[in-house]
Amino acid sequence: MDAARELGKWLILVGIILAAVGGLFLIGGRLPFRLGRLPGDISIEGRRGSFYFPIVTCILLSAVLTLIMWVISAFRR
User: How far is Cα 77 from Cα 74, in angstroms, rounded to an integer?
Assistant: First the structure.
């Protein structure tokens, strides 16, 4: 395949992924959970400031992105 055709396929794939992420942002308020505020995320509030580390959210996003990349690589073979 020539390079332009390969680039076209990648641009379509990236567009589909961006549309899916945009759709999640649109319906995100109606989901039963809020990404970024899941149980297990670390939140410490003090008198002088606060600290928030979304550890569970990071693990969940890592697992989902790993699954997506695995599926993409399986279709490329």
Answer: 6
Query: For residues 55 and 66, what is the distance between their CA atoms, to the nearest angstrom?
Result: 16
Per-residue pLDDT tens digits for 29-60: 777 767 777 888 999 999 999 999 999 989 98
Q: What are phi and psi of 38, to 5 degrees?
A: -85, 155
What are the boundaries of each domain within the chain?
1-32, 34-77
Instruction: For residue range 65-77, list pLDDT tens digits in order.
Output: 899 889 888 877 7
Q: Judge whether 60 and 66 are in contact, CB under 8 Å.
A: no
